[in-house]
Structure formats: structure tokens, C-alpha cells
Amino acid sequence: MxxxxxxKTILKNLITKPPAASRYSLAKKEFKRNTxxxxxxxxxxxxxxxxxxxxxxxxxxSVNRADKKWEIExxxxxxxxxxxxxxPKKCLSMGNEYTKPAVAKDKEVFENARVLxxxxxx
Length: 122
Fold this sequence. Notes:
With 122 residues, the chain is α+β, with helices and mostly antiparallel strands.
């Protein structure tokens, strides 16, 4: 009797009900307006003052004024937004899309309005 009831329930769930889980990996996620995603930089308006580096609580940002380089370690960044608030030229902004998954501790290096390379830290 128990096996019959269980089989009836299984068949009913397989045929009539939609799947319990959504296919989240295939569907494009829409982010809300105030979602804290990742720090975005407009390198053309940056003056390399280093205030964002000083305000970063985790030390994820490093600025080299002499070489005109701006670097961020995405795995260290906690997306608090302190650097965005402190930037005098407003060249930093908080994007609402998340950073892609990382497999290594890389730095994104920005110079002359383009990403130079991903330098791996050991």
C-alpha cells in the first residue's frame, strides 16, 4: 500500500508540477539599481591622487602616481564603496554587476584607459 502511494506521488510530481529549481545558471540575472557589484574605473579622468588607496579598508587598491597605474585586487575588495565616496574626480563608480569568478589572485592593472595585464601574485 505504501509503495503504491509513493509511486502515485512521484508520477504526479513528474508530470504535473513545474521543476522546483530554476535554471539560474542559464538565465541572465537582472540586478537592482542599488546592488553593490564591483568597482568600475574611468581611467581618463583619474589624477592618481591615491585617496582611494588610503580609504580602502582591505588594501585592495594600489595607485602608482609616477607610472600612472591604478591596480585593484578583486578578491580583496569587499565592495564597501569608501573609495567611490572619497574620489575627488568621481572617476570611480560602483557597478551593479558582480565580478566574474576568479581562480587565481590576480590584479587588474589600468593605465592609459585600458587594462594592461593580469599580474599573478604568489
